[in-house]
Amino acid sequence: MPKKKSKLDNLSQAHGKLENKAITLDQIWGDDGKRKYGTLNLAEYESTLREYNKSDLQNHAIKIGLVPIDDRETLIKRLKTEFNKHVSQFRARPDVTNSAKLSKKSKDTLSEGR
Q1: What residue spans define the domains of the chain?
Q2: Which of 12, 36, 16, 8 is nearest to 24 (CA)?
Q3: How many CB atoms neighbour CB 57 within 10 A?
Q4: Mean per-residue pLDDT for 65-75?
Q5: What kind of fold does domain 40-91 have according to CATH?
Q6: Quick one: which of 22, 38, 18 has its CA closest to 91?
Q7: Helices 54-64 and 72-90 sit at what angle, rounded to 10 degrees?
Q8: Alpha-carbon gap, residue 66 to 59, rounded angstroms
């Protein structure tokens, strides 16, 4: 005689994690990160910076929130650093819950402290 299925087999458990991986309030409100720089791609941003003349670079630095300086190369380096900081805020952090595959011996060793 086949075993009767339990009602519990059809239930699922909520894990309480956010599925959309939003990190900042701007992301929750729908900002995809492109508003400030126009892109999240470093190569595209570098291309844009190369097209700017010195006064355009300084105006862009002011818009971003940096103090503009006279040295073009140093200013570009600072702008790239700020761009990378901005992009890192919009990248989803990796899910580390399943990243390590432990052997049974390792799990037993770790569970001894419980």
Answers
A1: 40-91
A2: 36
A3: 19
A4: 93
A5: 1.10.720
A6: 22
A7: 40
A8: 10
Burial of 89: CB neighbours in 10 Å, binned 0-12, 13-18, 19+ = exposed
**What pTM was estimated for this model as a whole?**
0.58
Q: What is the Cα–Cα distance from 73 to 33, expressed in whole angstroms?
A: 25
Q: How many CA atoms are closer than 13 Å to the CA of 11, on its beta-carbon side?
A: 6
Task: Give me the chain's average pLDDT, please.
Answer: 80
> What is the DSSP track for 23-87?
-SHHHHTT--SHHHHS-S-HHHHHHHHHHS-HHHHHHHHHHHTPPP-S-HHHHHHHHHHHHHHHH
Q: Which residue has the tokens 């009767």?
A: 4
**E strand or H helix at 113:** none
> Residue 104: what pLDDT?
87
Written as six digits, the tokens of 70 are 């006279």
Write down the residue that tokens 């939003």 correspond to.
Answer: 22
* Token digits of residue 50: 């190369």
